[in-house]
Automatic annotation (TrEMBL):
Name assigned to this protein: MULE transposase domain-containing protein
Superkingdom of origin: Eukaryota
Pfam families per record: MULE
Organism of provenance: Mytilus galloprovincialis
Residue intervals of the MULE transposase domain: 14-51
InterPro entries: MULE_transposase_dom
């Protein structure tokens, strides 16, 4: 990453800096970013946060039960939705949720759920990925996920169109992408209107804003807000 910063400065005469860095949950990436950009806030991607829990669910053999049992789906999505709670109340409410009678009954009927809860507590509460990294309570949609990076990867693969292109073909496509990037930078510098966000994500952000404001204004209790966010999480998985 230090090499990238130097190359960027050499090519553009600008220092590469950022207030927020959104990444998936790779320890090496997070450590490198924190070292090279100490002023930036490190943010875990919410989509990858949910996928990590989903992968663990599958490892514990809960996939079929998840598809069959509504109560288990709500329970797992509530674990994911804890990222929308205020950072100050995350740990306490996870413990209350884990000790809740409904959760305990599900753990009895679906033994893998107990292991999933232990995994979450070990890795995302007390482990290397603390709540300050994955909590999205005060983040907007743009800083909640790194989907724009994933979209670029998908589009780039489509542009190249080959699994193992030769060097000259690859360079040709790279130059095309460079021109596209230059046009985008020029548009920003001219003050052109940014691309319109997809309707799906606009509506999702509006829903999150309404729920968050109703919680902050005292129109919803914390548990009502948390339960409502379960339906929002369903949009991500």
């Amino acid at each position: 990453m230090r090499h990238i910063k130097r190359r960027y400065r050499r090519l553009t005469n600008y220092d590469l800096s950022s207030q927020n860095i959104v990444s998936d949950f790779e320890t090496g990436m997070i450590t490198a970013a924190e070292t090279e950009f100490p002023q930036a806030r490190m943010c875990g991607c919410f989509f990858h946060f949910c996928r990590s829990i989903w992968r663990r669910l599958q490892k514990e053999g809960l996939r079929n039960a998840f598809n069959r049992r509504l109560a288990l789906r709500r329970c797992v999505r509530k674990i994911m939705a804890i990222a929308y709670l205020s950072l100050a109340v995350v740990r306490q409410n996870f413990q209350l949720f884990r000790q809740d009678a409904t959760t305990q009954r599900l753990c009895h009927n679906c033994p893998g759920l107990r292991e999933l809860l232990t995994y979450f507590q070990r890795n995302y509460l007390n482990g290397q990925f603390s709540p300050v990294i994955w909590n999205v309570y005060q983040r907007n949609m743009d800083n909640r996920t790194n989907n724009h990076v994933e979209s670029f990867n998908k589009r780039w693969n489509a542009v190249v169109g080959r699994r193992h292109p030769n060097l000259w073909y690859f360079l040709k496509k790279l130059k095309t992408e460079e021109r596209r990037g230059a046009l985008s930078v020029a548009a920003v510098r001219r003050g052109d209107r940014p691309p319109v966000r997809k309707r799906k994500y606009r509506l999702l952000q509006e829903r999150i804003d309404r729920l968050t404001n109703s919680y902050r204004n005292g129109q919803r209790t914390l548990n009502q807000y948390w339960d409502a966010m379960v339906y929002t999480v369903a949009q991500f998985n």
